[in-house]
Specification:
It is built from seven helices and two strands. It is mainly alpha-helical. The chain folds into two domains: 56 residues, no CATH class; 97 residues, no CATH class. Strand 1 and strand 2 form a beta hairpin. Helix 3 packs across helix 4.
Length: 172
């Protein structure tokens, strides 16, 4: 088994500790007896042990070893970016069924699709064709009938009805 030699070095600032693992390679006399496959396995194992030891020293020194993961965007952020791309950069815009589906299913909710995006969405809906257009009209009519029976003085219901009315006028 290879031996690990680990050193902690102070870089130019003594208060900042830089940790580096310097691992000695397996002894040369041990390598002579090994087949190429065994040597490769031994080198992999050795490398893995070096990394493990280096991470351990870094943790002890208080240095983070985890890589920062990029922020994942939510479905609403992706859909609104898709819509913005459609309006501002049509040559580079590419159709995405999942984004369109999200927009069509959430377009009546002001919290998810703010007013400035809704006006862009209405322009987008003008190009809607086929079953997507038919389904959108059917769902809008069903929602309108459903909301007719509810409290007409509730501002959220009124906003939703107004959006449904605009969609029906556009697509019918």
């Amino acid at each position: 088994m290879p031996r690990l030699v680990v050193e902690q070095l102070f870089v130019s600032h003594p208060d900042k500790l830089s940790v580096s693992a310097e691992c000695s390679s397996p002894a040369a006399d041990e390598e002579e007896d090994l087949s190429p496959e065994e040597r490769r396995k031994l080198e992999r194992k050795f490398k893995k042990e070096c990394k493990k030891e280096e991470k351990k020293l870094m943790r002890e020194a208080g240095i983070s070893t985890k890589k920062a993961e990029p922020k994942k965007l939510s479905g609403s952020e992706l859909a609104l970016a898709y819509l913005t791309s459609w309006s501002e950069n049509p040559k580079e815009w590419k159709f995405q069924k999942t984004r369109q589906t999200w927009l069509l299913s959430h377009m009546y909710e002001k919290e998810k699709v703010p007013d400035e995006y809704f006006t862009i969405l209405l322009d987008y809906l003008q190009g809607l064709k086929g079953s997507a257009r038919d389904t959108t009209v059917q769902k809008a009519e069903a929602l309108m009938q459903e909301l007719d029976g509810l409290d007409a003085e509730d501002p959220t219901v009124m906003e939703k009805c107004e959006r449904i009315r605009q969609v029906l006028q556009l697509l019918s």
